[in-house]
Amino acid sequence: MAQERTSTRRRGRRGQGAAKVMSAGLAGPAYHTVRNTLTSPEVFSEDAVEDIHATALRVLEELGVRVLNAEARDILVAAGCVLRDDMMVHFPRDLVSDRVAQAPREMVWHGGDGYRVEFDMRSLHFMAGGGCPNITDIDRGRRPGTLADFVDLTRLQAHFDTLPALSPSIEPQDVAVNERHLQTTRIQLETAGKVPWIFARGSGQVEDCFEMIRIARGLDEAAFKERIWTYTIINTNSPRQIDVPMAQGIMDFARAGQVSIITPFCLSGAMAPITEAGSLTLSHAEALAGITLAQVTNPGAPVMYGAFSSNVDMRSGAPVFGTPEHIRTNFGAGQLARHIGIPWRSATGTAANAPDFQSATETQLGLWGAVLGGANLIVHAAGWLEGGLTLSYEKFIMDLEACRTITAAMQPVEATPEAISFETIAEVAPGGHFFATEQTMARYADQFYTPLISDWRNFGQWQEAGAVETVDRAQAHWRAILDGFVADGLPEDRREALLDFVERRCAEGGAHPVD
Predict the structure, then answer these.
(1) How high is the pLDDT of residue 20?
(2) Using CA atoms, how far apart are residues 181 and 135, in angstroms rounded to an integer?
(3) How far, in Å, CA of 236 to CA of 399, rounded?
(4) Residue 19's pLDDT is what?
């Protein structure tokens, strides 16, 4: 895995000062085995959680979900669901309960060279922003994302142990959709041994990507199905609809034993009831429907419970994030995930248009809502702007400062007699200081968290160094990472086989998404 490296290159809009501030925070500990040590708040009583769950089952049974994929409808009906007019599938509540109980309660994701990421109900993992059509940085401004930007963002994700899996950072607009899955998967596999994501936009694209992972990891089909090597994110079309590619993705991933993260995106007042309890009821019902489809396709298939609920600005209809409602729905979603016992995915975000105070505040409030809610995977934790329309290079770094701080805060607190420090307290006279104590001298180098880009110098020192502001330090940091980046790489025979496969499939026309 690519480690965090120190670069001596001095770049940035304000020259040497930016590089000097930046270089101090490049090194850091590995965080990919973080456990959430906090007690989650409960916004609902146990009775209310049961009522929401029971109402979600009632929604599935009495109102149903429109399933646009014919094969998915057939599989669900064969399992005991009822098909009515207009592709409406009605799920018997006992069927849902039985099938959801078959989903794994813990899982391990695998990458290259023994890399592994463990998930259970106490895990805490962060993932970068994903799915953005646009990219921005403070020099070039906002523009459509390109494959070159995708390479940059994949390298930045590979660099930070804080991010244990790769995310679909941006949609490279300069690559045709029938080839986009091939190029984005190739780049991930050539860049890092971390767990890659793949598109779920039709079986042709999914199978291409599965084959590429088998080539890169040296697997036959049986070995591929024995472990989790990749994941995808499935979004329902709220309210109460699963479209053709999403349903196909659930089935394709279930059959291959790979993870689908089934995530309704319920915005209160728009695609969901305006109340938080109502929004969570709908979100819970849709997630249960997707999980049920996965389990009737392949009992025991790995899935994650997804819940990404916030609200809209009722003056404009635009989605907003980091709101009290966003935070509380994260708390409630965590209660529902624990009620069914499946690891769950949440997300943070921002409606801000630039890497400014608003974007940082909204992202961090939503982030803490997900952390306190007990989310096991928090998506869009780094770089996201404009409600997902744009990803920012600088904000990617700025947000990772918060993620790293949270993961450091989750480390166990030492309470040995030496740490409790009676002898050290006795060593210092009243009115003295602890800078020169034996304990301080033994621990000062690594006792405290070292920031990525936060500047803790006083005003005079900061001004003398060029008065470099946060966004400029972030720019210098990501540039230094990319300047010094060295990919994990693949064995030459696998790299050539992967490239041959991509070139052949592109020559054959790739695979188009399904509608």
Answers:
(1) 34
(2) 19
(3) 27
(4) 35
CA distance 307 to 291: 13
pTM, rounded to two decimals:
0.93
Which amino acid is present at 285? A
pLDDT by residue (tens digit) across 97-113?
999 999 999 999 999 99
Quote the CA–CA distance of 345 and 232 in Å, as a whole number: 12
Tokens of 207: 């199978």
User: DSSP secondary-structure letter at 228?
Assistant: B
pLDDT for the residue numbered 504: 98
Q: Is-cis flag, bond preceding 133, omega within 30?
A: no
Q: How far apart are CA 126 and CA 407, in angstroms?
A: 9
- Tell me the pairing of strands 384-385 and 390-392: antiparallel
* Helix, strand counts (H, E) of the chain: 19, 19
Q: Which of 17, 95, 15 is nearest to 464 (CA)?
A: 17
Q: At what angle do helices 393-409 and 357-373 cross, to 10 degrees?
A: 40
Whole-number Å distance between alpha carbons of 67 and 64: 9
SS3 230: coil
Say how far apart CA 395 and CA 397 lie, in whole Å: 5
* Each residue's pLDDT tens digit, 326-378: 999 999 999 999 999 999 999 999 999 999 999 999 999 999 999 999 999 99
- Give the homologous superfamily in CATH for domain 99-409: Trimethylamine methyltransferase-like (3.20.20.480)
Closest CA to 351 of 387, 310, 313: 387
Q: Would you give the DSSP letter of residue 181?
A: H
SS3 312: strand
Quick: pLDDT tens for 409-462.
999 999 999 999 999 999 999 999 999 999 999 999 999 999 999 999 999 999
Quote the pLDDT of residue 32. Answer: 60
Q: Say how many CA atoms lie within 13 Å of 489 toward its Cβ.
A: 5
Give the Cα separation of 71 and 60 in Å (integer). 19
For the four alpha carbons of 338, 340, 341 and 342, in that order, the dihedral sign comes to negative
Instruction: Tell me the HSE value of 43 on the side-chain side, using a 13 A CA sphere.
Output: 20
Q: Are strands 241-242 and 308-312 parallel, antiparallel or unpaired?
A: unpaired
Per the DSSP assignment, residues forming a β-bridge with 267 are 310
As a whole number of angstroms, the distance between CA 216 and CA 496 comes to 10
pLDDT at position 453 is 97
For the chain, what are the domain ranges?
99-409
Positions in the chain short of pLDDT 70: 1-32
Neighbours of 143 (CB within 10 A): 13
Q: Which helix (H) or strand (E) holds 29?
A: none
